[in-house]
Amino acid sequence: MTIIYGQMRLREHRAGNLVRASIIQGNIEQDRKWEPLYQDAVLATYKDLSLKATASSPSIIVWPETAVPFFFMADTSYSRELVAFQDN
Length: 88
Description:
Elements: H1 2-11, E1 21-23, H2 30-33, H3 39-53, E2 60-62, H4 76-87
Parallel strand pairs: 1-2
């Protein structure tokens, strides 16, 4: 019954705004992601892919919830770098 209801709701035409989204997937090997020597490369990968995604003028760019190899706000250096990047 839930599937039928969901299908009916998806077919309805509702007013709204079009949102263009870019979804970033870095394909980072999970066993290497947290290695200290690899952290800069992981962050660079996501930043590079995000910059490339701006060519399609997205309204939003979405990274995976575990994209960055550090604990946000606990690692102040990487946190500042990431905030500065998104402010550009």
